[in-house]
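Sorry, any thoughts here?
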Amino acid sequence: MPSVETTAAPGSLSPGGLRRVLVVLCVTEIVSWGVLYYAFPVLAPAIAADTGWSISMITAGFSTGLVVSALVGIPAGRWLDRIGPRPVMTAGSILGPPAVVGIAWAPTLPLFFAAWALAGIAMAGTLYPPAFAALTRWWGPRRVRALTALTLLAGLASTIFAPLTAGLLTGLDWRNTYLVLAVVLAVITVPAHLFGLRGPWPDHDQTAESDQAAGAAHTPHEIVRSRAFWLLVPAIALGTFSAFAVVVNQVPLLIERGLSTTEAAWALGLGGLGQVLGRLGYGRLAAAFSVRMRAVVILALSAAATLLLGLLPGPEVLLVAAAMLAGAARGVFTLLQATAISDRWGSAHYGRLNGLLSAPAMIATALAPWAGAALAVALGGYPAVFVLLAAIAALAAVLAIGTVPRPARFDDTVSRHAGVSSPSPTATAAGSDEVDHR
């Protein structure tokens, strides 16, 4: 695991407790994403071949789970703020295994959809949003270091579970493969969340006092009604839609450009390497740019990389370089989304606000695979789709300009240096590190 310094906030966990929580969440995120998300693309063709259901209908069941996850994530965020991650994530991990069993043994398409809806409830309690809330509240000013470590290691979910699922499928049918994965999910995540997330959950007053000291004291109602929040939500949703559509449609684009399926797959894999490198560099971006400029730069980088993929006819080396650049942009975008609330309004109401922010983004994730394929038919090929996706990411960058609260009443020492260095009392008192919103 990447080296992560630990500094416990008042009334929070000890440094050892913080490390324990981080290790637990790294493990459970890998397993939860692997079983509930990444196993499906591997098993979908086998499901279709065995059941006679079309791939589009099977994918619609999976997308139903993502939409349910988005909707349930809103009340789940409120519960996280009130009672902490342990009961919420434990409940999600308890629901996950029976949902996977239901998917495996669904005899009809309606029951298949119902099982994915239950899986969506489990996703709301186990995937990134609750894990981000846990690390943001417990780690405080060091949250970016913890979030970076989490997303780096959780990014291995596809690397581990895609081949694992394929390997199981060689000896088992898809139903029994899902049953084995359900056991893995239960054995690892339930006890890990139940026993590994123990510890005092900083109450609202403690967190609010810390946020007020940083100049980020706002009520949830003020935040939700603010122009900054209303611009942030579509900016993140559009950025998410573009990023996920690029991932899903990149292989067919590269095949249209003349690459073989194997070469296109390698390019996608190298894009994953770019994603890791991007996340490793997020701390430097956080230190170098204000909150506003950070969002604009990352979304603009995503737009530029997507446009390159859409316009470059070749050669292969340039296409792979563009794929890596797109991966890097996707990697830093994940951390941008994770810190968007706390950078602007502190962490006192992070769960509730991030639930509202994440819901449209999760729906965009669910729609991206369908939309990309449909647009390719309508526009006559994937290059035009990528040009359109670049325009969508550019629109998100424009919206990001207005996502900083006004008046700017918070000291950017926390938001710019979260996870990089703690603010010195002298600098904070003097206001020498105020945000540059220009």
Summary: DSSP finds 19 helices and no strands in the chain.
